[in-house]
Amino acid sequence: MIEDLGAVTSSLRLECDVAVVGAGPGGIVLALECASRGLNVVLLESGGDAFEPDLQDLSEAASLDAAMHAPLSLAIRRQIGGTSVIWGGRCVPYDPVDFDVRDAACGASWPITYNEIAGYFQASCDWFACGRAVFDAGEIPGLPPSIIPGFHDGEVRASSLERWSLPTNFGTLYRTRLLTDPRIRVYSHVTCQRVICDDESSRASRLECVTAAGARIEVGARSFVVAAGGLESTRLLMTSRGPGGGPPGGQSDKLGRFYMAHTEGVIAAVRLCTPSKGTIYGYEQDIDGVYVRRRFTFSREFLRREGLPNIAGWLTNPELPDARHDSGPLSFVYLTLKSPAGRFLAPDAQRLSLTGERVPGAPYGGVESTGALSHLGNMGRHPVDTLRFIGDFGPRRFLARGRRAPGFFVRQPGNVYPLQYHGEHLPHPESRVALSEQLDATGRPRLDIDLRFSDADVEGVVRAHEAWDRALRDQGVGCLEYLQADRHDAVRNRLGGGFHQVGTTRMSAHPRDGVVGPNLAVHGVDNLHVVSSSVFVTSGQANSTFMIVAFAVRLAEHLVDDLHRQHSLAATGSR
After folding, report:
1. Structural domain range at position 20
2. pTM of the model
3. pLDDT of 76 strictly over 90
4. Residue 123 belongs to a domain with what CATH number?
5. Using alpha carbons only, what angle is made at residue 267 by residues 478 and 91, rounded to the nearest 5 degrees?
6. 324-350, pLDDT tens digit by residue?
């Protein structure tokens, strides 16, 4: 059942086994997993089915560095489906090295092992419909082993894969199941303002919420799950009342700290001396028809020995606005995205960065256009390539039923490709969010955001590129060519975040070191859980969405076991 409570003006009390705040991928998967195991679930969503600017404004920060952090209106969505509505679909897990205690990651320590969460990767793949949980080209029949002919894996690996989801909007894909599952009640246009905990029992007792029309909604449950996104989950804990009156999870002073994003951008191009037809520069489809993309990565041993942050890289397109790329297809894409139709073809952040606007946390942007005439000239000089691209990519992206092409790449003359990197942002306690004195329309404090990067983040990206360059040269297949002389400045100029919101309710084995425990329960409140990228201890090279769903499936198993155990104990006591 999905019910819109936006117009409700009278108070209401709801009861269930599990109350979930937030109908993004984590909340939807958790709700469906719990319901399939016999639990009654209430799923609350602040928005509705469509984007609503007034509701979206509830997430805007009171303060942030606009040069360092993307506006939250570009980065997240308050609606059923959450940020999956504007998500590109990239599915990639964390690596074993991300769970190692490393000096490079400031000694950050996960309270679980890689193997514990890796057991849920296939379940996550199933929810994303991205095929089998295999992320190495060498393990998939029919795929060439490397990005570059003749390149062999060693300390630098060229066989790593990322997968691409069939659905990118969980609100659309799983709507029928949410509507028809008798154990799930979804309520839209309900904004959760506080979690209230009892001092006597040290347990969460209810959620205090408000409808769009101002009515008060209370939700009672045996267990509560905050799945409101990376920053909104943290904000909700900060505005809630834990045992003793302070915010739940606030006993360690870690709530809101260790805010991480990723390092991302392009500072070099790969010049290859191998046959250009053998370069795997774009997307492939595996034996199941799932789109995959190759990446350059490093071995676990190399990262540990060299003290490098985890990082990945892949071949990409030149910046679209600069017509000196002399590509008819790229100029066609640029002009299309700049046209009035562009806003219907790509999420705002992607569209803006691809067309030259600087968006913090996006790999592209900040490049001035050479002018529409230059782009029309490219199309005129290369009409066959342009028409072939339109006839090939257009149907695969916009007309395909089911799995569609996740993006486009164009073969580059001279076998020279920009190298896009996506790397670990190292945890730092002063990179943080805090409540401000400014209130949103519901009366809740907005966030002050202070996202910080360090010299170690910059140095890690530069050293990774040096290692990639050595490997290409040593194997005689190519080299890197840097786009500007000062590599460190090139990295600094690309620093920013806001799209991957990691670390502000970090997991820990002991309450003094974090906010939630190994099973995602808030320390000191054993029936209040968080499933969000905010619980991640390190940011890794991976974006967050795939791992959030893996943790949601794991949490659902724990909740079912815990609630069944409570039921058994209660039944035993009653006898």
Report:
1. 2-130+165-261+428-450+498-574
2. 0.96
3. yes
4. 3.50.50.60
5. 90
6. 999 999 999 999 999 999 998 999 999
